[in-house]
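HOLO CASE FILE
Compound: adenosine-5'-diphosphate
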Amino acid sequence: MLTVDTAVDWLKTFAAQVEEQKAYLSDLDSAIGDGDHGSNMARGTKAMAEKLEEGGFKTVQDVFKTAAMALLSKIGGASGPLYGSALIAMAKQAGETETDVAGIVKAGLAGIQKRGKAERGEKTMVDVWIPVCEALDSGNLSKEVIQSAVARTKDMKATKGRASYLGERSVGHLDPGAVSSGYLFEALLKGGVLHA
Ligand code: ADP
Ligand code: MG
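Model generated. Tokens follow.
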């Protein structure tokens, strides 16, 4: 169930995974971008984990809002405002429906798309968020769903973000933001949010 504790756990697990994989995320970004996605994300998620560690949250909304502010203040590049928008929208939605995980993640996706205007198939993080939302709706989110969504970005041609400057040459590489979003949802699977 989505509670203050499971939400904090979820985001801290995500932060730990980003920290562990930051070199890999930057390597992926070196191939089709400017090589900073791992360091960007790790800076933000470290600040986020430190804030979450302080505790004292009364609602799930507080948790997401605090996370959003920490990410926004530390992550540069395109992904900071995108993840920040996602978490702000998730906080807002959590204020309405505290425990509806599918609804909350869907609001996050809408926040990303409102800011970044990416649609499915443009080789961005939304290529992971969209299938994850669909799977949450039907109650069958799995590691496989997440990993195959991430893997599918490899054959896509980027038409949004920095990778779009490469055109056809972006094909054949995983999208770094899709990979980091994959970590977010694998962390969701690991924790207590989706379990009774
Ligand atoms: P920058 O591209 O500014 O260096 P990062 O390297 O941190 O920022 O993040 C790159 C990631 O951001 C991409 O891999 C992609 O997933 C995501 N991204 C870029 N533009 C968009 C967009 N318009 N909508 C959704 N995601 C995007
Ligand atoms: Mg980059």
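CASE NOTES: The longest helix spans residues 37-54. Residues 1 and 194 are 6 Å apart (CA to CA).
CLOSED: yes
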